[in-house]
């Protein structure tokens, strides 16, 4: 879709990913970009009783909600830039959560600029410390859940949620997704993005 191509391959240790694009004709320049990639530990190393979250994929929620990682890859924005005023879709996976296990979820989206001012204002009592988006729920909750499956004997379940991006003005944001279980370690995923 839109000329995007996705490839998947397993990485077990740090690597350099190089992407090169060479045009069919010599009239336009070629391009190359290199990135250092540090893959997460495999699921087989997740300690029993702990949970983990994937990175958060952002997509235009005017499309159908993705049900799988492959669907999310096809729909997600190609960079950390999100168009202003879009209905923003979030896709993530949770690893190790047992079926029916109670878990509280919190999603916070804070503007980088407003975050600093709010923290200072909150300390002095002159300003509210509310985030641009602050949603809390207990699973199952808003959004949707994919069909769980096992990978390396670890339960994996995808989740989707759409938020109204009209409240997000142009600027840089930090999104924090936190899963908290009674008497157990919590899991957090953080995603930075920019609205333009």
Helix content: 10-25%
Main beta-sheet annotation: 6 strands, antiparallel
The coarse silhouette is globular
Order of helices and strands: EEEEHEEEHEEEEEE
Tell me the fraction of residues in β-strands, as a range: 35-45%
Rg, nearest Å: 19 Å
Average of the residue pLDDT scores: 84
Q: What's the multimeric state?
A: single chain
Q: Which structural class do you get from the secondary structure elements?
A: mainly beta
Intertermini distance: 22 Å
Number of DSSP strand runs: 13
Report the uncertain regions: none
Task: Supply the number of helical segments.
Answer: 2
Summarize the structure.
The chain is mainly beta and 196 residues long. The chain is 10% helix and 41% strand. The protein has helices at residues 69-75, 112-124; strands at 15-21, 31-37, 52-53, 57-60, 81-82, 87-95, 104-111, 133-138, 144-145, 149-151, 154-164, 171-180, 187-195.
Structure description:
- With 196 residues, the protein is mainly beta.
- Helices cover 10% and strands 41% of the residues.
- The strands form three sheets. Strands 3, 4, 6, 9, 10 and 11 form a six-stranded antiparallel sheet that branches. Strands 5-13-12-7-8 form a five-stranded mixed sheet.
- A hairpin with a 2-residue loop joins strand 10 and strand 11 (154-164).
- The longest helix has 13 residues, at 112-124.
- It starts with 14 loop residues before the first strand and ends with a strand.
- The mean pLDDT is 84.
């Amino acid at each position: 879709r839109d000329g995007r191509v996705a490839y998947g391959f397993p990485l077990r240790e740090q690597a350099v990913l190089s992407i090169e694009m060479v045009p069919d004709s010599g009239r336009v320049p070629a391009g190359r970009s290199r990135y250092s990639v540090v893959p997460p530990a495999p699921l087989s190393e997740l300690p029993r009783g702990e949970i983990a979250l994937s990175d958060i994929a952002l997509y235009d929620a005017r499309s159908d909600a993705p049900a799988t990682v492959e669907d999310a890859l096809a729909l997600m924005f190609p960079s950390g830039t999100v168009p202003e005023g879009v209905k923003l879709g979030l896709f993530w996976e949770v690893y190790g959560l047992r079926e029916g296990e109670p878990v509280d979820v919190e999603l916070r989206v804070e503007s980088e600029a407003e975050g600093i001012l709010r923290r200072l204002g909150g300390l002095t009592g002159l300003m509210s410390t509310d985030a641009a988006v602050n949603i809390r729920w207990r699973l199952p909750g808003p959004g949707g859940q994919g069909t769980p499956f096992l990978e390396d004997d670890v339960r994996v379940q995808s989740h989707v949620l759409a938020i109204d991006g009209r409240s997000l003005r142009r600027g840089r944001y930090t999104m924090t997704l936190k899963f908290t279980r009674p008497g157990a370690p919590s899991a957090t995923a953080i995603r930075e993005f920019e609205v333009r």
